[in-house]
Amino acid sequence: MAATTSIHGMWSSRLAFILAATGSAVGLGNIWRFPYTAGEYGGGAFVLVYLICVAAIGIPIMMAEIMLGRRGRQSPINTMLALARQEGRTEAWQLLGWLGIVCGFLILSFYSVIAGWTMAYVVRAAAGVFHGADAAAIAAAFDGFVADPERLLAWHTIFMVMVVLVVARGVASGLERAVRFLMPALFVLLVALVGYAMTTDHFAAGLSFLFRPDFSKLSGEGILSAMGQAFFSLSLGMGAIMIYGSYLNSQASIARNTVIIAGLDTLVALLAGLAIFPIVFAQGLAPEQGTGLVFKVLPIAFGQMPGGQLFGTVFFLLLVFAAWTSAISLLEPMVAWLVENLSLGRVRASVLAGMTVWLLGVACLLSLNVWSEITVFGLGFLALFDFLTANILLPLGGLLIAVFAGWVLSRAASVDEFAMGEGLGYRLWRLLIRFVAPIAVAIVFLHAIQVF
Predict the structure, then answer these.
(1) Which of 100, 215, 381, 397 is least enclosed by beta carbons within 10 angstroms?
(2) pLDDT, tens digit, for every residue of 65-88?
(3) pTM score > 0.85 for this model?
(4) Could you give the maximum distance between any two Cα atoms of the chain, in Å?
């Protein structure tokens, strides 16, 4: 049995853990990626497959990751090392911890750049820049913004400073205090946007688009995309959920908390769709706009609709809050490892980790403009980091978590940590984590690297 508390501190309550883990899961993937992906693959049918995958893949792996974190009570690297030793297995399992931390670093490096875009768009929306602008003007403004390295650098720097300031203050004073404000604020902003969408004449159309399945529009590609979205949406395989699990009280129910977190994460994604699609339809715009939906399409709608200046500002502020809570969780695992292994104070460890991410982010933002000719395998740094994490590191990490929890960790250890006996609930989890989740994630992985 592992230590009952972490040297880094503990969540003060079950609610604090739920808010923090939900904040880690809820990010740009829910509010930016989910709506445009659902739009690309036909809406309701995609959403139905997504919900099934959250239940069959996402929840079992999240339970496993929280369980491993709480049992190890250390950074992901040291947790995997300690648990492997307890089970008499190879110490190479610590590489799973390294995989998660490296993945989180790479994600945060370009995530911070995109979060900087959302911060800039808060200012633009509030200043009325989008008012009356047509599609060509909005696209030209975005392209001009991305082509300006100085502006991108300024916003990227501001965002990373915000992240480091929170993480440096520790679990109770930093992470917990931030999510106690940011998560309720995020939900209030999102509900306000849905409330506005309900006043439009196209709310019923948005509702139908999201919840009326049309399986004729769902391709095999769409099914795989739904599987991938369900996995990535919950912030799995990057060490964030594992480190947050290490701060969880030993008496808290992992299964119950995981279901709540996954439910809240899914609720945010669906609410984002309900907020976005009625506005898109009301302006006669197409939902299948890809990554440009947020930065090129929605500003057109905000610029033309009544109250668009206010609601555009609220929407991009919502994106900032979502990005901030996720970014905090991405930096935390490395900070914990630096404190444990290099005996650094938390402030110094946070600054060192933050500076490393910031430098990687500079390479990402420069790859959009002055370094656009520098490529690796035909990809700039931002696109390369995105491809490596989304298509290789994340699914590989999730697959290894499932394998370790289901096949390496002893049955007695998982029964002890879940504290729910060996009834139907445990047997169902064990079936899903040993067979269903690994096979599903492996399929997503093989598809992503174009094996089929």
Answers:
(1) 215
(2) 999 999 999 999 999 999 999 999
(3) yes
(4) 66
